[in-house]
């Protein structure tokens, strides 16, 4: 595994300012506790992307591995015009890279900080926000940190929801039917989260959408105080006043969004039927496709897909074929190595080597094969996955009972020629 990581690290330094030979890094767009976001250009297409670089050391130190994996999993299942799209995930020895859709217009926060929006413009962005959040909820995803800083604008000034780092999925709901993790930004947090008795993910998102709508229309927060506990008390009691320019229909909608009782708080379906919301509303139609973390060169059904580099960097199995064995157990061992050979060449070589010891292919699936020999005593699976345009990762899993010596002395040495040797730097 260390060979894989060292090789990925060497690839990062192929050229100054280049990442994996695919992206040319540009200026720093933003910086947080765990990540930095850069503007970058796809060298092949010339298209702009945003690259979020996360420190692996900080992830491990903060025990956030599961957190990052969940963010990747959530973003990979979302494909909507008003949600920032995740194109792919890559990694080096020290960093995890999210390659994201680039929102040229920046944060909505910077725009509203200069002054409140008109009611019509507030409505336009709220309609786009509800479309995106309703889509998330229909797929079992709850954002839990909606605020103007996490709402971006593209080159056409359309809204894009981003930062799913605090998101939850239906699988996290406890037997009581509620979520229990305390999270969110203080001024946008729902009262039921403060009560610490559990909450529904869709209801807290509706509350935060209400805060966002209030801010767009008013130019300031509905609940605010230098003393955090005083602010929490206001949130818990639902004490706020709409500015005098707020129309009666908008005020009524805000009161339903900022209802302290989650059971009676307005839902997405009810919002879409609301008279104020429906003014000028056009249902957003789009063609949804299955989203995978893959390289842009391959199609969805191709075996030529890039390995999820996060799996490598977190030392977990990204190409686990143990399920192909009838009875996977501790008698199965595995190893990985990098190769510059074509996947077809590698599998042909493996098959050729196997024949010398009467080990034959019994099952093929894409770039994976299962082999057996020695009257069924020896079983081996070989899987090849794309790492970069030039390199692949080969994973071999094998049975060990009674045949380990055959592997070490006869089969393994014949595969050494496939292992990639990095150019000498001396």
From TrEMBL:
Domain Protein kinase span(s) in chain numbering: 23-277
This protein's UniProt keywords: ATP-binding, Kinase, Manganese, Nucleotide-binding, Serine/threonine-protein kinase, Transferase
Similarity remark: Belongs to the protein kinase superfamily. CAMK Ser/Thr protein kinase family. SNF1 subfamily.
Known EC number: 2.7.11.1
Protein name: non-specific serine/threonine protein kinase
Species annotation: Daucus carota subsp. sativus
Catalytic activity annotation: L-threonyl-[protein] + ATP = O-phospho-L-threonyl-[protein] + ADP + H(+); L-seryl-[protein] + ATP = O-phospho-L-seryl-[protein] + ADP + H(+)
Ranges where the NAF domain occurs: 302-326
GO BP term, example: signal transduction
């Amino acid at each position: 595994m260390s060979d894989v990581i060292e090789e990925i690290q060497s690839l990062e330094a192929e050229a100054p300012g280049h990442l994996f030979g695919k992206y040319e890094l540009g200026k720093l767009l933003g910086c947080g506790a765990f990540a930095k976001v850069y503007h970058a250009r796809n060298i092949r297409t010339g298209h702009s992307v945003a690259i979020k670089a996360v420190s692996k050391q900080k992830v491990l130190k903060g025990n956030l591995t599961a957190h990052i994996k969940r963010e990747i999993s959530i973003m990979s299942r979302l494909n909507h015009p008003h949600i920032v799209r995740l194109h792919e995930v890559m990694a080096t020895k020290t960093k995890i890279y999210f390659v994201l859709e680039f929102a040229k217009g920046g944060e909505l926060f910077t725009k509203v900080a200069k002054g409140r929006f008109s009611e019509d413009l507030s409505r336009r962005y709220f309609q786009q926000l509800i479309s995106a959040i309703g889509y998330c909820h229909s797929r079992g995803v709850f954002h839990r940190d909606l605020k103007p800083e996490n709402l971006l604008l593209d080159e056409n000034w359309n809204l894009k929801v981003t930062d799913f780092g605090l998101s939850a999925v239906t699988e996290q709901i406890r037997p009581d039917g509620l979520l229990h993790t305390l999270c969110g930004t203080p001024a946008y947090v729902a009262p039921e989260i403060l009560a610490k008795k559990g909450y529904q993910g869709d209801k807290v998102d509706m509350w935060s959408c209400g805060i966002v709508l209030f801010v767009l229309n008013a130019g300031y927060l509905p609940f605010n105080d230098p003393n955090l506990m005083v602010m929490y008390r206001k949130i818990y009691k639902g004490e706020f006043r709409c500015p005098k320019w707020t129309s009666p229909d908008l005020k009524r909608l805000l009161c339903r969004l900022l209802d302290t009782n989650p059971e009676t708080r307005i839902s997405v379906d009810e919002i879409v039927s609301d008279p104020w919301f429906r003014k000028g509303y056009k249902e957003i139609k789009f063609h949804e496709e299955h989203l995978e973390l893959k390289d842009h060169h391959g199609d969805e059904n191709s075996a030529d897909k890039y390995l999820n580099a996060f799996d490598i960097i977190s030392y977990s199995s990204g190409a686990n074929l143990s399920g192909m064995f009838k009875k996977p157990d501790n008698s199965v061992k595995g190893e990985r190595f990098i190769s510059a050979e074509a996947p077809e060449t590698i599998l042909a070589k493996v098959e050729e080597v196997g024949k010398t010891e009467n080990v034959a292919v019994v099952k093929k699936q894409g770039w994976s094969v299962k082999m057996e020999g020695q009257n069924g005593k020896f079983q081996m699976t070989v899987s090849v996955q794309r790492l970069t345009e030039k390199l692949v990762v080969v994973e071999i899993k094998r049975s060990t009972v009674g045949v380990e010596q055959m592997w070490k002395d006869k089969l393994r040495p014949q595969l050494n020629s496939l292992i990639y040797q990095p150019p000498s730097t001396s």
